Amino acid sequence: MTLSFSSPSISEKGDVVHVEDGKAAAEAGLYNPHVDVSGIDERALMRKVDLRTLPWLSFLYLLCFLDRTSIGNAKLYNMEADLKITDTQYLICLTIFFTSYAMFEVPSNIVLKRLKPSVWLSLLMVLWGIMMTVQGLVHNYSGLLVMRWMLGAFEAGLFPGVTYYLSCWYKRSEFGIRAAIFFSAATISGAFGGLLAVAIAKMNGIGGKPAWSWIFIIEGLITIAAGAVSYWIIVDFPDTATFLTEAERTVVIRRLQGDAQFSAAGEKMQWRHIRKALTEWKTYLAMVVYAGIDMPLYAFALFLPSIIKHLGYSATRANLLTVPVYALACMSTCLVGFLADRYGNRGMYNIILLSIAAVGYIILIVSRNAALSYFAVFLAASGIYPCIPNTVAWMSNNSEGSYKRSVALAMVISWGNLQGAVSSNVYRANQTPWYPLGHELVLMYIGTGLIATVTFRFLLKRENARRDRGERDEIIEGREGGFEVNGRFASIEDAKREKGDEWSGYRYTL
User: Fold this and answer.
1) CA–centroid distance for 462 within its chain
2) Which of 210, 218, 44, 252 is nearest to 132 (CA)?
């Protein structure tokens, strides 16, 4: 199945450039203008890219999310009692994971850009798989604490790294569904994690190890094996992808350049690109949006088994009852990714989804009925999960410049993941079985994300209107119009290259 939607793109105000038009490509400064691409079927090419990138990367993220959240499943099998840790110590172990996770996301994305994805991502997987395995061998609180810190540090690079990596392959109108498919692995891991935990728990006592220990060991060994073979499976960036011919690589990069991704053909690392990401208002407002979604996501993923168990179900039944919840989350994530790519308005989808999630948590706060509360978690999951890839795609769509986008995405994702430290502490043992305080705090975050989304969309729309009126026009030599305050450039190509998404012809995705 192909997921691409082919259409001409605007390269200059009023000028339409088709990727197969060699003359137009040369005039627009596109990649390899001398290469004949007339024989390339664009849909078949993107199907080829899809099949080579998405399935394996999604599987890796399934393992990533499984490894970080399986502690919630392991907890149901007497982990706290065996390690002699208190509820507070357990929450600290959850918190410290997100601290190291958030710290290393931005540096990891910079390293990824400098190294090959096949090398960096594979190395990270092997290392966190080792940490996961050793986590099943710990005997006390300090051992678990150290392993959770190390696990967070090595896992930090995968999600922001792959998100940035995919944005280097696909047009802005194609990226959302790919991000959704990739992230849907998190929902699958939620369902699969419950089933896997039930199966592995049957190993209780083998080798003198309890069930919770085997959950960590088996999942860690699977990750190590996957990381080892990833070196030969993960492909690198489009300009060096060996599974494509020169003509195919040319088409991929021309498509991106025609979609206002002017840095697609390559960009040298300069600190001014990173400085732009660090000083731009869009980055910080997107961080607030993402935090309002990511904290509820981790609160939901880490504590759903416990929430269901305390509604009156056994550990095994509680794990099994998470499966249909995550199945719905997976379907809604992919559906929203498809619709947002096809029809745009990513911000509006966020508003609708966050409203649905808010309704779910309002029900959880007021409900004292197990069946009604179980229904509410379906609403919460179908609202929260699709917002993650939709927001990432929204931010990626509105950031041009490969290094700038890499750093901006890492900042947004790392700040969101830091909220996992908050979500790790909101569901306290003394609040069972209804957890009113935890649900109220999650609802507060959802409200913050909703307000920030509305504000972000409004400001982007206002900026687009200013560009439509010509208020942001640059002075281009040999052309009339423009304002000195917006810069003076020898050509439109220079303006695009220097200003990125600040160029007057660039339009933000709403």
Assistant:
1) 27
2) 218
Beta-carbon-side half-sphere exposure of residue 431 (alpha carbons within 13 Å): 16
Q: How far is CA 315 from CA 272, 307, 311, 506, in A?
A: 53, 11, 11, 53
Q: Which of 127, 163, 131, 128 is nearest to 144 (CA)?
A: 131
Q: What is the mean pLDDT of residues 468-475?
A: 92
Structure tokens at 422: 């908050």
Structure token digits, residue 364:
């959880």
Cα dihedral 49, 51, 52, 55 sign: positive
How far apart are the C-alpha atoms of 306 and 429, rounded to whole Å? 10
Which residues, 6+ apart, have CB-to-CB distance to 452 below 8 Å?
A: 285, 288, 289, 292
> Residue 438 contacts by C-beta under 8 Å, 6 or more apart in sequence?
299, 303, 426, 427, 428, 431
| 228-265 per-position pLDDT tens digit | 999 999 998 888 888 998 999 989 988 888 776 655 54
Per-residue pLDDT tens digits for 486-501: 889 988 888 887 888 8
